[in-house]
Structure prediction request, 297 residues.
Amino acid sequence: MEHLDICKLIEDFGSEAKCREYIEALRWHDYVTCPRCQSDKISRIKLRHQFDCDSCRYQFSVTAGTMFADSHLPLWKWFLATYMLCESRKGMSANQLKRMLGGSYKTACYLCHRIRAAMKEVNKPDMDSVVEVDETYVGGKPRIGRPHREKEIVVGVRQRDGELRFTRVGDVKANTLYKVIHQNVSDDVEFIITDDVSAYDGAMGSQFKDKHMTINHSQKRYSNGWIYTNTVESAFSLLKRGVIGTWHKVSAKHLPAYLDEMCWRFNNRKNQFLFRDTLLKMLEAEHVEYKQLTKVA
Prediction:
């Protein structure tokens, strides 16, 4: 599939039938298989847009067991919402989606969170080459004398000319930073660059101690040749524009989902098949129920 603009999206997927046909092709490729017993002995129930398994008699639709399951929203609206979240560089709020697609805020909010849940990346490759690590604070209202008291802490790890990872953490102590770095960085990394916050020295451990380079932000120095953290800081800038300009308010409970969305879109910024790949993840990701979103953290 070539890169979609919104006109082509409407042309290609402007009906329920076209959307179902496309999801079927993405999910099963050559032939339909039963999600319960994996049999390929399937009969179509055309009037109900369902399939009947001749082996176990299970009846199912193309959306069964996917993010689209149990939704009363037309598939073409799902496709439009997915496209808009993929193509909006700073994200899209549920209120904006509500205004564009119609319906209630509750429906739009649930729709956004289901799509975000599919954007969570698993089995991510470790970063190598030159990696920058930094932390930032988002959300909340600072108090006098306590500028970060009510804010959430996000650690960013970004490989130059490579991927970005955001992780919400509870503090910036050495042990916490150690876990984030060692969960994302390969043993073969060339260098890890941070600012001069002392906790980063303890976060390297013996494994990365000799590969750790720092830039002295406390002395108002922001680059020393190739030693800088500007690359990860530019990603923080994009994140904050999303929080301030698009989402306006992000709860601590849902912040990781927004971080996953931002990283997925950023890491796929050159992927001309981003819309298709996001739909694929929605077919494979664990189903999210509304009670999970409203449950008190």
